[in-house]
From TrEMBL:
The keyword Cell inner membrane does not apply. The chain crosses the membrane at residues 59-78, 90-107, 113-133, 154-172, 217-240. Pathway: Cofactor biosynthesis; tocopherol biosynthesis. It is found in: Plastid, Chloroplast membrane. It comes from the Eukaryota. One of its GO terms (cellular component) is chloroplast membrane. It catalyses: phytol + CTP = phytyl phosphate + CDP + H(+). This is phytol kinase. Its EC number is 2.7.1.182. It is an enzyme of class 2 (transferase). Belongs to the polyprenol kinase family. Its main location: plastid.
Length: 278
């Protein structure tokens, strides 16, 4: 009896899938080979695919709205002088990555879901490039995410940040700790290094007078905590099954390495003239 191609949808749980458990789409027969699904099964497969597309489209619109609202909210707080611009920028820095990752379980469990989620950082990349090149203007965005309110600043830290989100979404998604830890270190670690170091960083590093011990300790501590926290978050949804003791050791090593790199005196001047290590 000829075996027939099997239709298979990647089975990893999404928050919505957990509420609507699906019957298996593979149809083993008693002889151990698979057979083509019946017309009823094919209709179910098609309806599952349509449901997943609708779920992912809705999730994409919701997360895009969240991104827009986040920037608007901090712009309002800055305009009302409730928080200073640097703190606003760093809170957007911390929250964007963590909230974006936290939104991943609302997407479906299909293999295409990551491409829907990647639309969010991709559109934000286009926004940052268009505003950074002066093609359009958006004072709210510029005030919320730049140091000095210059549009061209959008093409530096913010654009790199969103590109990292895009790459981690496309190539790692929620199935690999690599992307999760990378985003947690970038958003939680680097964000709090700035927030804490700028305020309490009187004792400077011997090899970099722009950075401080407390800032680097914050980078390590918050990078580690955000990484473990997000790995635990995704393990709750069943995306990851981790041996925690080895994971904790590896994340501590990664946090230390990231802290050392972040503390190096590498700035725009150094990048332009590598012999100019301050
Ligand atoms: N290990 C660190 C990191 C940051 N800081 C404090 O936070 C400020 C900004 O940190 P920096 O890493 O320069 O910010 P970036 O993330 O590089 O740049 P951006 O301002 O674009 O975020 C520093 O001047 C310093 O006061 C610190 O004390 N110790
Ligand atoms: C200030 C930043 C980096 C430099 O330190 C962060 C820039 C953030 C972008 C302007 C907006 C990025 C939005 C995310 C792609 C999606 C967030 C969604 C979430 C639900 C808020």
């Amino acid at each position: 009896m000829a075996t027939t191609p099997v239709v298979k949808i990647a089975a990893s749980p999404s928050i919505l899938t957990l509420r609507f458990p699906r019957k298996p789409l593979l149809i083993p027969s008693d002889t151990g080979v698979f057979r083509r699904p019946s017309s009823l099964r094919l209709r179910r497969i098609r309806s599952t695919a349509v449901a997943s597309w609708l779920q992912d489209s809705g999730a994409t619109v919701a997360v895009l709205s969240g991104a827009y609202s986040l920037v608007l909210s901090f712009d309002f707080l800055t305009k009302m002088n409730l928080i200073e611009q640097n703190l606003s920028r760093k809170l957007v820095h911390v929250l964007s990555g963590v909230l974006f990752m936290s939104s991943w379980p609302i997407f479906s469990s299909t293999t295409e879901a990551r491409y829907f989620a990647a639309i969010v950082p991709f559109i934000n990349c286009l926004r940052l490039v268009s505003y950074g090149l002066g093609l359009f203007t958006n004072e709210d965005l510029i005030k919320s995410v730049t140091r000095e309110g210059k549009p061209e600043e959008l093409l530096q830290g913010p654009l790199c940040y969103v590109l990292v989100l895009l790459v981690c979404t496309l190539f790692f998604w929620h199935q690999s700790p690599i992307g999760i830890v990378s985003i947690a270190m970038m958003s939680g670690g680097d964000g709090f290094a700035d927030i804490v170091g700028r305020r309490f960083g009187t004792l400077k590093l011997p090899y970099n007078k722009r950075k401080s011990w407390i800032g680097s300790i914050s980078m390590f501590t918050f990078g580690f905590l955000f990484s473990i926290g997000m790995l635990y978050y995704f393990s709750i949804f069943g995306y990851l099954h981790l041996e925690w003791m080895p994971v904790i050791k590896k994340v501590a090593i990664i946090s230390f390495a990231a802290t050392m790199v972040e503390s190096l005196p590498i700035d725009e001047a150094t990048l332009n003239n590598p012999t100019n290590l301050s």
